[in-house]
Amino acid sequence: MMRTATRTSEVATTDAGRRRRRRGRFLLLRLLQGVLTLLVVSILIFVATQLLPGDVARVILGDAATPERLAALRVQLGLDLPVHQQYLNWLGGVLRGDPGQSLVTGRPVLDMVGVRLVNSLTLAGVAMLVMLPLALLAGVSAARRRGKLLDRLFLGTSMIANATPEFVIGSVLVVLLGTTVWPILPPVALLPTGQSPLMHLPSIALPVLTLVIAGGAYLARLVRVSFIDVMSSEYIQMAKLKGLSERRIVYRHALPNALGAVIPAASLVAAITIGGIVVVEYLFAYPGIGSLLLESIRSRDLPVIQAVVLIIAASYFILNFLADTLAGGRDRRA
Amino acid sequence: MQRIAHSVGAVGGRRRLTTRFIAAAAGVSLAATMAACSAPTDPGQQPSDDPATVSTLVYGAIGGANDTAQPYLSDLSTMSVAIQNQLYEGLTRLGTDGAVEMALAESLEPNDTLDVWTVHLRPNVKKHDGTPFTSDDALWSLDYILDPANAYSAAAELAFVDPAGLKKIDDLTFEIHLNKPYGPFAATLASFRLPMAGKGASADNPIGTGPFKLESADSTGQRYELTRFDDYWDQKPGFEHLTMVAFNDQAALVNALRGGQVDVVGAVPFTEVKALEATPGLDVLVSENAQKVFLSFRVDLPPFDDVRVREAMRLIVDRQQMVDVAFGGFASIANDINGNNTSCPPPDVPQRKQDIAKAKQLLADAGVSDLTVEISTDNGFSGMMEMIQVFAQNAADAGVTVIPNQLDTATFLNKWTEWPAVASVAQNIYFAIPTRYYLAGGGNNTSHWADPEYAEIAAKLYATADPDEQCEYITELQRIEYERGGDVIPVYPQAITVHSEKVKGLQQDLYNRSSYRFNGVTIES
User: Fold this and answer.
1) Do A205 and A261 share a domain, yes or no?
2) Domain boundary residue among A95, A120, A142?
3) What pTM did the predictor assign?
4) Does B436 touch chain A (CB under 8 A)?
5) Taking CB atoms and an 8 Å cut-off, how many pairs form between chains A and B?
6) Which one of B68, B148, B418, B423 is most buried, counting C-beta atoms within 10 A?
7) ipTM of the assembly?
8) Chain A CB contacts of B219 below 8 Å
9) Using CA of residue A211, residue A212, residue A214, residue A219, what is the dihedral sign?
10) Would you say B474 and B24 are in contact if contact means Cβ atoms under 8 Å apart?
11) In chain B, positions 239-258, which contact chain A (CB-CB < 8 Å)?
12) By three-state DSSP, how is residue B106 classified?
């Protein structure tokens, strides 16, 4: 008896250990995969910027550049080095935690990116915080009225919102709520020096609303489908037969299960939101990494382009990883 | 204040600056002595510090993360020019009417051969750190500008200065030795690209003598907070705080103006002016403008090496349509001469008008009846792309196919002066025009024009300090530009500043500075 118990516990311990090790290996593999992806992205960006016509020295010196001054500046900026050498210098810097200096302003890239990254994350974070409950509410409400007027209205409007680019949604909101029709919100997201966007919520209302409409419509449709699936599942039918109240069925049984399917999707929507932020920041002159990326591409400021693209790529990776992990967890539960 | 509350179409009723200004000659040479006595503005006009007038003005312009408060940036956005104008000043400057005035210099005296100039600085001018502005500061600034290691592109404007020839005499006097005689030195020093800064000035230590000093610049490069410099030597602004906000997009800038988030904006798109004029609470200020956009064709390549083809291009264009369509009525008709900013008499030549039949004949004579030309642009200035489109429409009537080629700035600059045809821009005093635009090796000589007679007269222009002689040469140079130059200059666009009606005292300005010249400007509460 005693021996059997020990053996069982040993088996359990071994199983748990094996699972932990498998999970550890999985995480390590995904991490390696992530690092490799970022490395490939950085090489691609480097090659792409080399292929773009025009270099940063030309942009810095403008139309009054002379060949001598261009040559001198290229030497100063290290643009005269072989391309692979430039890349390795940059990579070496990144590995030491120093992504270099802006070629245009000479300021450390970390300084230029730091505050803007916080601003962008804040904008995306606030948008997600608003979007998730709204999408849930809209999706569940539509699902519960499946086929009725409200549901059809929801399907129609969410389809339009889905199909409309963020740039158009934002521009329409500016006209509607910022400048012309009913001007109640600031049309441009200006932030006082050194202050968090959270202290100026009206200033970021329109960019948040744009992201919420763009991402929320998609997410709410997923919630609706997922909720309809769950509501037609056998165990919900069983619960109904048992005579449980509808409220109890919806909130205790259906919703948690529907959420399981939606949460990974929400992570993907968050990833899409980070991408969409480039457009929204530009439209509302919001000082985030998206507008910085556009400016640095315009001026061919490679270290800044690299830093911002890697941040966006890393965010994608992390959020996708999160989505995969959450989806994996749900599968195991099932 | 010149508030322009007329309807947009009423060009005739618009208040204009008097026609042709004095940038050229007037000032120049004898600027030296004559200006010694000119304190440009009346100190009696200093606005009071009455609490009622103490407030903040928010200025908006195109700019962004690449702007800094460094005095010598080669790549200048509108925002960085506006910031520099608050912090720094030149030895000389251009008045609102374009005339050369003394600024940090009290006088400039040349020797007889015009190759050594003695600069006497204005006494009792203070820098933002409270110390006096002296020869050490001015010489440090000139050294910085000329040092090839700093790769400052505007050093080209002082190519005639011997970098080893900067000699301090005393705290308020120094000499500048030149490589060759140069007459219009005072006018050249008035360039906005040649400001003087405190010794050791940098982006992090922007010490100048201007009407505002920098309090803070946020790390995103989007926002600058400035306060009035109360020890400023000239006319002070009538408000205490200035916030400067950079926008990376024209649409956002106009939206911010409509939404009341900014008080003053310069250079709004011509297509927006009508709507903004009709917006309650906003006023529009229109100025004649020395900044001009034009089309430039390479005369060293066929077919534009044939003067008949160049003449045809100039006859193709419907100048009135260009005014009305490309610039929304905010432009005046020009005559292919690069200069609405000299006080010299224009050359006695007829105004060119559209003549499609003659243009066709000239093209046929030159053997290029089925001409196709691609015009490249980065659309960097309002109206550029529209100008090419109107030209393309006109050209089609003469059987010429014009293909607009819009590029991003870096791509466009990558082949600067190599494109066969471009939309270009000039914003300089006339003295800078021949060197930069029409003489061999000029950084902006997009047409590759190298006319021996033009070069000979230009050399005489630069070698004299006599205003009458200078005018004679300028008129002659303009005659040659008209006859055989490589540029089509159909119109002179005006400058548009839009501002809150509470902002009072903004002035018309020939060099497009109306939106950020705040001397004497007040804000009504």
Assistant:
1) yes
2) A95
3) 0.85
4) yes
5) 169
6) B423
7) 0.79
8) 111-112, 114-115, 194
9) positive
10) yes
11) 245, 247-249, 251-253, 255-256, 258
12) strand
